[in-house]
Design goal:
The chain is of the alpha+beta class and 378 residues long. It contains 16 helices and five strands. It is elongated, with a radius of gyration of 27 Å.
Length: 378
């Protein structure tokens, strides 16, 4: 570990301490969550089967965005608990009951069981997938003095900067004993820094308007260690520190995965926007083509909508009788006019997305499926 780089990071953290914790950023929230997490989790675990999911949801809400990411793994456990409360309860109980010697085994078991529940109840969803970040998050908040939370990108950047080159792997194969070893070395350096320890102590004196009693004491400085790792990438604590990243195939592959994750995330976001636009367009068509509405068909003339089921409307035309028509097709093909304010301009705006409606749902599912394996790299 490069002690010079570590000391520069400490100095930058001290300089930005008030900025990191001001009302715009409030990174002290990690200490507040850790203070409340274990008592509330214990209360949930001791609740009846009928109450368990509700109480677990309250714990999930408490964690804010510290654990739940785009794929919402913690929320997924709440959903699973609604179906199998005893299974999820046992998963947490076994996860929390152990030490470092069986840490990897406990995390692996939790990961396997959670994936089985997801495959069982939400097999086609991109949501609710647990990973090393989420599971170490539960451990970290439940027992901060003995555990560390793992956030892959931030951890790797920090390791490169301090020149910790022991390889801990990726994804489900992440070696937590190696990652913990890096964090242990960081904690040793933290406790040896009088300036950093004094800065950290001030957290419990002013509280930035918060009651310091709401903060977890963090006597072992594991929360502070994670805060440093996280803030390096988020608040520019690497500034001015010159370091090289190893040019190994593993690191190159990781960067490729990060780049692909960004591309797939952007693709997914664009597809989601298309899906929302389609929803708005369909809602507009539904609001226009209502029972009792008079429409003018280019071929059949004026008619009145007598019945409606989803986008299928039954129209009574004096000249030809009843016709069943598909409202979206009418809009896309422009063969009907309706006496509604701004109808023509509005349907012109919606036509492109409505023409593409059959492929949007499949594209969204495809984008979600492609992005999910890469979500952990963002």
């Amino acid at each position: 570990m490069n002690d010079n780089h570590v000391q520069q990071i400490f100095a930058h953290y001290i300089d930005k301490f008030d900025y990191i914790n001001n009302q715009n950023h409030q990174e002290y929230y990690k200490w507040q969550i850790a203070k409340r997490f274990r008592p509330e989790m214990d209360a949930a675990l001791s609740a009846s089967d009928e109450e368990f999911a509700t109480k677990l949801y309250a714990v999930k809400k408490l964690t804010s965005n510290l654990i739940d990411s785009y794929t919402q793994p913690f929320h997924g456990l709440v959903k699973f608990a609604e179906q199998e409360p005893e299974t999820v309860r046992n998963m947490f109980t076994m996860l929390f009951d152990g030490n470092r010697e069986n840490l990897q085994e406990r995390v692996g078991s939790f990961l396997t069981q959670s994936h089985a529940l997801r495959d069982k109840y939400y097999p086609d969803s991109y949501l609710y997938k647990e990973d090393m970040h989420s599971i170490t998050g539960y451990l970290f908040l439940y027992d901060p003095d003995h555990n560390y939370i793992y956030k892959p990108t931030h951890a790797r950047d920090f390791a490169d900067c301090i020149e910790f080159y022991d390889e801990w792997g990726t994804g489900a194969d992440t070696r937590l004993d190696i990652y913990y070893r890096m964090c242990d070395q960081l904690v040793t350096a933290i406790k040896a820094s009088k300036a950093l320890m004094a800065t950290d102590a001030s957290r419990f004196e002013n509280g930035w308007g918060e009651n310091p009693d709401t903060f977890y004491p963090d006597t072992e400085k594991h929360i502070l260690a994670f805060d440093l790792i996280y803030c390096c990438s988020t608040y520019g604590l690497f500034k001015g520190i010159s370091f090289e990243r190893p040019k190994t195939k593993e690191r190159q592959l990781m960067q490729e995965r990060k780049d692909k994750a960004v591309r797939l995330s952007q693709q997914l976001e664009k597809t989601k926007q298309d899906s929302e636009a389609l929803k708005a367009a369909l809602e507009y068509v539904d609001s226009v083509y209502t029972m009792g509405r008079t429409i003018h068909h280019k071929k059949y003339g004026d008619g009145i909508i007598k019945d409606k089921k989803d986008t299928l409307v039954t129209v009574e035309f004096p000249e030809v009788g009843e016709k069943q028509l598909e409202s979206v097709t009418l809009v896309v093909n422009g063969i009907v006019s309706v006496d509604v304010t701004d109808y023509e301009s509005t349907v012109e705006k919606y036509k492109p997305i409505l023409k593409d409606r059959t492929s949007i749902d499949s594209r969204l599912k495809s984008a979600e499926r492609e992005f999910t394996p890469y979500a952990q790299y963002l």
